[in-house]
Design a protein that fits this description.
alpha+beta; five-stranded antiparallel beta sheet
C-alpha cells in the first residue's frame, strides 16, 4: 500500500512542477493570467488573448530569480520522489528494511526541498510581470488582487504527504528489521534485552 501511495505522490509532484497555475488572476485584477514555476500567461489588454512565456530550458524567460530558485527546489524534490519510485527495484537485491529506510530519507529530503520551494516562490511576486497582472499593490509575499491557485495549494499538501510517507517508510523499515531471523541480526542488538 505504501508503494501505491508513493506512486500517487510521484504523480502529484510532477503535476505540481509542470502546471502553471500557482497564482492567477482574481475578480479585480487589471489583466487575466496565471503564473507557475517557469511558465506564465498574461492577458493582452488590446486583444484579450493570453500571451504565454517561460520555459524550463530558458532561465532568462522566467520572470523572477525567486521563481527560478523555487523551480530548482521543487524540481529537485520531484526528481527525488521519482528516484524513490525507481528504488523500488532495490527490493529484489537488498534487505527490505534498508530499502524502506533509503526511500524514507529520500521522501524526507523531498519534503524539505518542497518546503523551501513553497517558501521562496512568494518572494518573486514583486516581479514586473506579476505586478502587471495583479496590480501595483502586489509585493513580496503579498498578492494584491491575484489569488493563490490549486497547484500551489497542492504543493503545500504534498509536503504533508511526503512527511507522512517518510514516517510510514521508517516504520516499515524498522518493522522489517525486527522480522529478520536471529542469524541475520546485528550481534550487539541480540545481546540487549
Amino acid at each position: 500500500m505504501w508503494a501505491v501511495f508513493t506512486i500517487c505522490f510521484v504523480i502529484i509532484t510532477v503535476v505540481v512542477f509542470i502546471q502553471p497555475y500557482w497564482i492567477g488572476d482574481g475578480v479585480d485584477t487589471p489583466q487575466a493570467g496565471y503564473f507557475g514555476l517557469f511558465h506564465y500567461c498574461i492577458g493582452n489588454a488590446l486583444t484579450s488573448e493570453l500571451v504565454c512565456k517561460g520555459s524550463i530550458l530558458d532561465f532568462a524567460s522566467i520572470p523572477s530569480p525567486a521563481f527560478r530558485t523555487a523551480m530548482f527546489f521543487v524540481g529537485t524534490s520531484m526528481l527525488l520522489i521519482v528516484g524513490t519510485m525507481v528504488s523500488f527495484s532495490l527490493f529484489f537485491f537488498c534487505n527490505a528494511g534498508n530499502v524502506y529506510k533509503i526511500c524514507a530519507w529520500m521522501q524526507l529530503a523531498s519534503a524539505a526541498l518542497m518546503v523551501m520551494g513553497c517558501m521562496i516562490y512568494p518572494d518573486g511576486w514583486d516581479a514586473p510581470e506579476v505586478k502587471r497582472m495583479c496590480g501595483q499593490k502586489t509585493d513580496k509575499y503579498s498578492l494584491g488582487n491575484c489569488t493563490v491557485r490549486w497547484a500551489y495549494i497542492l504543493a503545500i499538501i504534498s509536503i504533508l504527504d511526503a512527511l507522512l510517507l517518510a514516517f510510514l517508510s521508517f516504520t516499515l523499515g524498522n518493522r522489517q528489521d525486527k522480522l529478520l531471523p536471529d542469524e541475520f541480526q546485528v550481534q550487539g542488538a541480540a545481546e540487549n534485552p
